[in-house]
Amino acid sequence: MNSILIVDDTAFTRHVLRSIFETLGLHVVAEAASGEEAVRNYCLYKPSLVTMDITMPGMNGLTASRKIMELDKDAKIIICSAVSRHDTVIKAIQAGARDFIAKPLQLERIEWAVQKVLGTGVDIRRRDRHVKQIAEVLV
Fold first, then answer.
1. What positions are modified (4-aspartylphosphate) (predicted)?
2. I need a surface site. Which of 91, 96, 114, 119 has the fewest CB within 10 A?
3. Which stretches in the chain have pLDDT values below 50?
């Protein structure tokens, strides 16, 4: 089963992402609120995928992504950030991100990115049962 590490300094965003991943049938193994915590949790859990915010207290998401890539060149990281300027997206890709999702988060965009990065499909019937729940969380 694919495992996910969610990294965002905002508890609400972590909650939304956890709900989305669980709806897609993915297992969230850990969460982190800072870049330092992200690197520690990556080493501890070796997740299949990391979602990473950029702007966080302490070590930012770009630096954390670079450090994770130094530890594991095959790490799969998706940046999820409200900062979506062209130069920021380029820096994210240079840091090792496989994809970039601009906030606000959208279920279909997250699903597409996960499928692309992990090379897997999701259980559409399971997803459809929970779309309404996620929509309520996002509102």
1. 53
2. 119
3. 124-125
Contacting residues for 119 by C-beta, under 8 A, at least 6 apart: none
Q: Residue ranges per domain, the chain? A: 3-138
pTM given for the model: 0.85
For residue 85, what are its two tokens?
A: 């300027």
Q: Which residues contact 129 (CB under 8 A, 6 or more apart)?
A: none
- What would you measure as the largest C-alpha separation in the chain, in angstroms? 40
Half-sphere exposure of 15 (CA within 13 A, CB side): 9
Helix, strand, coil percent values for the chain (each to nearest 5): 50, 15, 30
